[in-house]
Structures are given as structure tokens and as C-alpha cells.
Design brief:
The protein is of the alpha/beta class. The protein is 45% helix and 17% strand. The protein has a 6-stranded parallel beta sheet. Strands 1-2 form a two-stranded antiparallel sheet. It has a two-stranded antiparallel ribbon with strand order 8-9. A hairpin with a 2-residue loop joins strand 1 and strand 2. The structure holds adenosine-5'-diphosphate (ADP) and magnesium ion (MG). Adenosine-5'-diphosphate binds next to helix 7. The site of magnesium ion has 5 residues, from helix 7.
Length: 300
């Protein structure tokens, strides 16, 4: 019987030919036969198998993820047998898998109104040239050792000059804690306040509650905000009160000393209230151990 000519199905002899041609390369042959797929199926996918083989060869010669030669860096085009067909998928290579699992802890670290690169702050990269950091780093070690005690250790109030590395230091501690599974939030306080105020009608309660309850909190750059009665008495006061009562370690960075902060908090657009400002500073003192970081400006 005469067979219909089918434009879509390449001739079997063509398939065999190109497959056998490709198999002249011994390594390719070992690669495809190592897949445990029937030859008649393999033959239909010569071109894709060659792509997969090339990527697999690239992986064998790989030095680092950054020099990956595969079409999707970090991923390898991989054949998967399904009865009489083969499907191909881009799978993370072992180095990429390692990178993904190394970074998984970063989900424990949340940034509100802060630059993303602070997520990479780590103990091992802390500047070692500056002795002023030593007592703070010592305290961090103590903090980590004591974190699981019934009474949680206090946070720190880190006062110092602009660009001295205050935020970086605390972020490096939070990063180490994240690796141990402890969640933290770093908040750029002046912007957080502006945002809370702007979203007063919508997600205000949710956001406030989230920051109030997180296991580790950094209020970054406190004292740089425009202080109002609302921010002092409705936000900061209750936030600190809650964290004090629940023994939740709280950290602060500021360009101001606690005395300067108290002065700053006492004067709002509505007038002067020394008592309320003192009460806030008393809470900060209860929550923290004070440290000073005087160092050169690293932003220059
Ligand atoms: P501050 O909060 O005191 O104003 P930052 O923590 O923002 O200062 O640090 C200023 C700059 O220096 C940032 O770009 C930060 O990434 C970098 N930096 C600060 N301390 C370190 C450090 N110990 N190791 C590496 N980079 C640092
Ligand atoms: Mg800072």
C-alpha cells in the first residue's frame, strides 16, 4: 500500500542518520545512553540532546557561577524521560542550588524603607581596622550566646557620627541571627513614620503591629524625624512599651546621644513637653545598652 507523504514527520532514516552522526562523539554517546532511554526515542531528540550535552560539559569545566557559559546562567538544560517522549527543563546546577540555600535565611530579614544591599552585611566583612568597633562586636557575641535564655538580652542604642557604619553593624548582627532562624525588621524610622502617617486609613494597624511584634527590631536613625505629638505619643511610646513588656530586643541607631534625643523629643510643633520626652528616653534606656561609634565617614 502506498504510504502518504507526511511533511511533519521527518524520515526515519534522517533521524537515524543524524543521531548516529552525533554519536561519533564518544562523550555524547556515553551521555545519551547513560540516560536509560530507548534508542528509538533518543533519536527523535538529537538536536536537543546535543544542547543538553553541551551544557552538561560546560558544568564539568565550571569554575564559578559568575563564569557560567550555559544559556541560562546557573541552570542546566536537562532531559527527563517520560515513557516514549523526552521533555527538557532548566534545572539549577549544584553551585546554584548551594547559592539558593545559602541565601534562604535572608527571608528572615525584612527591610522597611532601607536600601536592599544592607541584607549582605555580615560579621566576616566588618572593618577590622577600627578598634572602636571591638566592644560592640563583643556585645553582639554575648547577645547571640544569650538570645535563647529565658530573659532575652537587651538591644543597643548606638550613637555616632554620620557614615560611621552604625546601620551596617546592626544589620550584620541581624544577618547572623537570621541564619539561626530569628526574624528581624530594620526600619528607617523617619521614612517609616512618614509612611505610617500617609497610610493612616489603610494598612496602618497591620504595619504597626508587625513592627511592634517582630522578634528583633532596629529603629534606624531615630532623632532624624520631624517629631510630632502623634509620632512620639501614639507611635513611639506604645511601640517601646509593648517591646519592653514582652522582652523583645530593640536596637536604635542615631546621630544623637540619649540626652540630645530627649531634647529633640521634648519639642514638637505643638510645644514643649519634657515629661513625655523623658518617659520615652527612660523606655529606651530600659530596652538597651548604650554604645558609641566614632569612626571615619565610610560614605565618602
Ligand atoms: P551610618 O549608619 O553610621 O550612617 P552606614 O552603616 O550606612 O553608616 O555605613 C556607611 C557605608 O559604609 C555604607 O555604604 C556601608 O555599607 C559601609 N560600611 C559601613 N561599615 C562597614 C563595615 N564594617 N564593613 C563593610 N562596609 C561597611
Ligand atoms: Mg545609618
Amino acid at each position: 500500500m502506498k504510504k502518504d507523504f507526511d511533511l511533519n514527520t521527518p524520515d526515519v532514516t534522517d533521524l537515524t542518520h543524524s543521531f548516529q552522526n552525533a554519536c561519533k562523539n564518544k562523550e555524547f554517546k556515553d551521555f545519551v545512553y547513560g540516560l536509560n532511554i530507548k534508542e528509538e526515542t533518543l533519536m527523535k531528540y538529537t538536536s536537543s540532546l546535543e544542547d543538553a550535552f553541551l551544557e552538561c560539559q560546560n558544568c564539568k569545566k565550571c569554575n564559578s557561577l559568575s563564569s557560567c557559559k550555559n544559556s541560562m546562567p546557573g541552570f542546566v538544560y536537562t532531559p527527563i524521560a517520560k515513557e516514549k517522549v523526552i521533555t527538557f527543563s532548566y534545572d539549577a546546577c549544584p553551585k546554584k542550588q548551594q547559592e539558593l540555600s545559602d541565601n534562604a535565611y535572608k527571608k528572615n530579614l525584612d527591610l522597611l524603607e532601607m536600601p536592599q544591599d544592607i541584607k549582605n552585611a555580615s560579621f566576616k566583612d566588618i572593618y577590622k581596622d577600627d578598634k572602636n568597633r571591638v566592644p560592640i562586636i563583643k556585645y553582639f557575641k554575648e547577645f547571640m550566646d544569650n538570645y535563647n535564655n529565658e530573659e532575652k538580652p537587651k538591644g543597643i542604642y548606638l550613637n555616632g557620627s554620620f557614615g560611621s557604619g552604625k546601620t551596617y553593624l546592626i544589620a550584620s548582627l541581624f544577618n547572623e541571627m537570621a541564619k539561626k532562624g530569628v526574624k528581624s525588621v530594620l526600619v528607617y524610622y523617619p521614612e517609616f513614620l512618614r509612611n505610617l502617617k500617609a497610610n493612616f486609613q489603610s494598612d496602618y494597624n497591620e504595619k504597626f503591629d508587625y513592627v511592634r511584634k517582630v522578634p528583633l527590631l532596629l529603629l534606624d536613625d531615630i532623632g532624624a524625624e520631624n517629631c510630632s505629638n502623634w509620632s512620639r505619643d501614639e507611635i513611639l511610646g506604645p511601640l517601646l512599651q509593648y517591646r519592653m513588656e514582652n522582652h523583645l530586643p530593640t536596637f536604635f541607631t542615631s546621630n544623637l546621644t540619649l540626652e540630645e534625643l530627649e531634647k529633640n523629643l521634648s519639642t514638637t510643633t505643638s510645644g514643649v513637653d519634657n515629661v513625655k520626652a523623658r518617659r520615652i528616653v527612660e523606655r529606651i534606656k530600659q530596652l538597651t545598652v548604650p554604645y558609641e561609634l566614632v569612626s571615619k565617614n565610610r560614605r565618602e
